């Protein structure tokens, strides 16, 4: 059994090589980054399809909108207004206040008051801008705040213009660590919950809160290829909450319309909620009314919520597999496609199985996204599809090409046999008589030449007839007009009907026709083999017309019997030629039938019918008895 399997695999080395080449091709595309945009798009789509989450009520955003700016005539907000807002918030005892406003120039009016407010409020975190080269250099430092109350702001944008990553920490040129605005807010809030920050053992870049480790972004994490992973970065797991965080305007705060309970013990973020200030990011991983553009202060809120929820609620971060496991995952789906395309012979069934496997792949990746794992889906799908559908098509073409080559070789062999058996023998006799100085009368010589001429014409007619019967003649076309995707019994019945129509003058004289067309097991048949079965039935019916003179009875059986598929054509005609042993008859049709039987693992037989006529029969094993239908 093992030897048979190994022989089968070894005989299809070229098929396996094509499949392995497809896997290597797809993995190469991924290694050079050609699939990066597709993987990002798939990741964004799966993130949007996640179940809706509850809004994180621990966060409140105070967003200065266009109305706030127009009412005061100051863009964006005066130092005094900021100081008053911070003092008002501080009265209601929030857990932490995050000020996401960059001051490019201090204002004379209210500046000192703002400085004193900064000194007084110890749970205030202000933002500073980091230079684009993420070297650690910053500008616009908040006044009079210690380093522990300052966090930098740096947006990392992917090449498609969307934000999927957050920079949490970086060391400057003096090798001093700086921490981002969101992680400072999360750290301050989690300290009130008794959860301190820390570093992961053996990795100073990895950060943790309590027992919760933050998986650090690597250059090849998920669908990324050789990305800049400088500092300590994470993939953002945006909350799929439909609506944004609770947000109130500056005017609502100053007019006292905000319930103090919305502030007490909460994380408060203050920032611009106006697109005119261009403080926004692009992300398509959020399933909301406006998924593309979100304010910068909202992005900070999502990151803070991610960090706090991971530490307090065990909400998953975005994790990825190691590179070796990702490529083993891709190879697995490529091998699965290879097996489907190689084992299943029916193209329609291959497409069904590939579709089912693709759906399973999508659901697996979707389920893993829900629990926080980003697994490659695009390269896995491509290897599955190429090796399933593509390899199946290649295999069908290869099989059909082999069949055509075998058919042509049989014609050539038959031609050589015919030439050797008659014309060459006659020519040899003529040459021998001439060389032996045997005088031939002109009449005898002419008779010999006429015999040779006739034998050559017979060879010509034989080759022409065999070729036309197999390839060109209307009686023996490969049935391109037939729908070979239909059930085999229906196709064979159509072949029988066409044969009778084309030879009606002969078959109309047969008084008794016994027909039996029942469903047959065709699960492992290729299109080329179904076509060959049609040719076999056509050839058998053609031989009835050619040899069975005086036939009054015709029996055509296409069914299953005792676990075997059977095609049988029998007549009761009298043959002109006397054939002592039908098994010794080896014309082109016989060789094609024997070759087809070998392909199917079956048997071809031609034997005498009782009391008169011939039976032509092809059998091969069926896997399962099908539904029978009589015509």
UniProtKB/TrEMBL annotation:
List, alphabetically, the SMART domains matched. Answer: CHASE2 (SM01080)
Note whether Cell inner membrane occurs among the keywords: no
Domain CHASE2: where?
Answer: 35-340
Q: Does the keyword Transmembrane helix apply?
A: yes
**This protein is called what?**
CHASE2 domain-containing protein
Q: Which Pfam families match?
A: CHASE2
TM stretches of this protein = 15-38, 324-344, 351-371, 377-394
InterPro entries, alphabetically? Answer: CHASE2, HATPase_C_sf
Q: In which organism is this protein found?
A: Trichormus variabilis NIES-23
Protein keywords? Membrane, Transmembrane, Transmembrane helix
């Amino acid at each position: 059994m093992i030897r048979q399997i190994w022989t089968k695999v070894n005989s299809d080395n070229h098929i396996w090589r094509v499949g392995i080449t497809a896997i290597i091709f797809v993995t190469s595309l991924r290694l050079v980054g050609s699939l990066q945009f597709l993987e990002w798009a798939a990741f964004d789509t799966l993130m949007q399809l996640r179940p809706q989450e509850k809004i994180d009520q621990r966060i409140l955003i105070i967003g200065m909108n266009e109305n706030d700016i127009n009412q005061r005539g100051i863009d964006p907000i005066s130092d005094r207004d900021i100081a008053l807002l911070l003092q008002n918030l501080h009265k209601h005892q929030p857990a932490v206040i995050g000020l996401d406003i960059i001051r490019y120039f201090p204002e004379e009016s209210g500046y000192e008051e703002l400085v004193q407010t900064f000194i007084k409020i110890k749970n205030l975190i202000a933002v500073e801008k980091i230079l684009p080269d993420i070297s650690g250099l910053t500008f616009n430092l908040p006044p009079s705040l210690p380093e522990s109350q300052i966090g930098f702001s740096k947006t990392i944008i992917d090449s498609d213009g969307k934000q999927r990553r957050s920079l949490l920490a970086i060391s400057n040129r003096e090798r001093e660590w700086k921490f981002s605005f969101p992680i400072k807010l999360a750290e301050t809030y989690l300290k009130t919950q008794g959860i301190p920050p820390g570093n992961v053992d053996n990795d100073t870049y990895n950060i943790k809160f309590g027992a919760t480790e933050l998986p650090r972004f690597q250059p090849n994490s998920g669908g990324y290829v050789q990305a800049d992973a400088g500092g300590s970065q994470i993939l953002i797991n945006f909350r799929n909450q439909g609506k944004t965080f609770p947000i109130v305007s500056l005017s609502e705060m100053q007019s006292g319309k905000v319930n103090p309970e919305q502030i007490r013990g909460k994380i408060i973020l203050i920032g611009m909620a106006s697109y005119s200030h261009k403080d926004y990011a692009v992300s398509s991983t959020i399933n909301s009314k406006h998924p593309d553009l979100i304010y910068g202060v909202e992005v900070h809120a999502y990151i803070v919520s991610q960090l706090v929820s991971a530490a307090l609620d065990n909400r998953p971060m975005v994790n990825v597999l190691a590179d070796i496991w990702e490529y083993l995952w891709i190879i697995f789906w490529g091998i699965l496609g290879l097996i489907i395309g190689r084992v299943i012979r029916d193209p329609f069934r291959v497409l069904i199985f590939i579709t089912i496997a693709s759906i399973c792949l999508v659901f697996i990746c979707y389920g893993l996204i829900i629990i926080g794992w980003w697994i490659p889906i695009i390269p896995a799908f491509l290897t599955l599809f190429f090796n399933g559908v593509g390899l199946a098509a290649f295999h069908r073409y290869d099989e059909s090409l082999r069949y055509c080559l075998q058919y042509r070789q049989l014609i050539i062999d038959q031609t050589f046999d015919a030439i050797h058996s008659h014309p060459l023998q006659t020519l040899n006799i003529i040459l021998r008589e001439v060389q032996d100085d045997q005088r031939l009368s002109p009449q005898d010589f002419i008779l010999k030449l006429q015999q040779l001429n006739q034998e050559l014409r017979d060879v010509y007619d034989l080759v022409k007839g065999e070729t036309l019967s197999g390839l060109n003649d209307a009686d023996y076309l490969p049935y391109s007009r037939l729908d070979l995707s239909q059930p085999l019994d229906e196709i064979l019945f159509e072949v029988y009907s066409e044969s009778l129509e084309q030879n009606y003058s002969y078959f109309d004289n047969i008084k008794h026709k016994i027909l039996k067309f029942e469903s047959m097991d065709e699960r492992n048949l290729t299109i080329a083999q179904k076509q060959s079965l049609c040719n076999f039935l056509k050839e058998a019916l053609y031989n009835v017309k050619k040899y069975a003179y005086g036939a009054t009875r015709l029996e055509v059986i296409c069914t299953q019997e005792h676990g075997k598929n059977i095609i049988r054509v029998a007549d009761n005609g009298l043959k002109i030629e006397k054939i002592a042993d039908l098994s010794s008859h080896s014309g082109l049709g016989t060789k094609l039938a024997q070759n087809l039987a070998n392909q199917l693992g079956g048997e071809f037989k031609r034997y005498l019918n009782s009391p008169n006529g011939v039976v032509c029969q092809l059998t091969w094993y069926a896997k399962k008895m099908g539904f029978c239908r009589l015509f």
